Amino acid sequence: MSNSGPPPATPVRLDDLVGFLRAAGEDTRLRVLALLADGELNVSDLTDILAQSQPRISRHLKLMVEAGLIERNREGAWAFFRIAGRTAAGALARSLVERLDPTDPVIAADKARLAAVRGARGEAAQAYFNRHAVEWDRIRSLHVSDAEVEAAVLAAVGDKPIRSLLDLGTGTGRMLALLAPKAARAVGVDSNHAMLAVARANMELAGVRGVELRQGDIYAPPVERGAFDVVVVHQVLHFLEDPPRALREAAATLSPGGRLIVVDFAPHGLEFLREAHAHRRLGFAREQIEGWLAEAGLEPASYRELAAPGSAPDRLTVSLWVGRDRRVVTDLPPRSNQEVA
């Protein structure tokens, strides 16, 4: 992810600072913070790495959550933890971790066990892919390559760094892996726990750190409103009962001048996708998505079609729409409000 330098330190009250330090000032809790600095983990991960009981680890986590040092995100029956973002307590936690010697025998051993946990995740993700490879490959064979689609998404985003990125319906995390390196902050949301596990493993295999993955409904995304300058909805709408509602919710998460990038299929007649792959909609016309973007308060900014080679009726065309928030940007440099060609 991009690094624009640390934000200026936020002054804190004396009693708050003492509370932060008390919450962090214990060897197990410092070890936990050092692990979470590399990405989010759940209680099971931490018990395996630290060789401590689940109740003990849970008590440490509860104390640090209450102090604001770390954040807890529910994902089905699991809870994942990460160092708190954009808070004085989270900044202090990161500062403490930066001062730990990575060659310290205890810290080094923890990181080695963390690598083993990530390796197990990667194996589980590969097994999931192997189980579904045939059906996914069949759909991919019907349209242009993923590389061409990803190149079109990158062109729509442009060369400027992204302050805050949101990927709704993140699935296996392909868009996060593509765009998170350009973003100061990246969040992925999906309703499916198994898919989030695959996305988490893929982020680690790709070496992408600091991504926030959250389980949640696309109709009520568990993120701040008005906080993201780029929101992506990639190959999601055709699964939904109410696509315009999903676009309205996505638009509500945009900051002033932000952009919503929608990627989906153009209209087609491949009924087997509805029957065998749970597609609710057989593609979308250009004017249909642009109308929904307008209803969501966005200005349709650009449109692009990526047609598969040949003209056979069983080939799919991938369409890409960009909608822009109409509000004037007042708190960003002028470059953040430039039009993307």
UniProtKB/TrEMBL annotation:
The UniProt record lists the keyword Transmembrane helix: no
Gene Ontology molecular-function annotations: DNA-binding transcription factor activity; S-adenosylmethionine-dependent methyltransferase activity
Location of the HTH arsR-type domain: 9-103
Domain of life: Bacteria
A Pfam family annotated for this UniProt entry: HTH_5
Protein's name according to its UniProt entry: ArsR family transcriptional regulator
InterPro entries per record: ArsR-like_HTH (IPR011991), HTH_ArsR_DNA-bd_dom (IPR001845), Methyltransf_11 (IPR013216), SAM-dependent_MTases_sf (IPR029063), WH-like_DNA-bd_sf (IPR036388), WH_DNA-bd_sf (IPR036390)
Keyword Protein biosynthesis found: no
NCBIfam families, A to Z: HTH_metalloreg
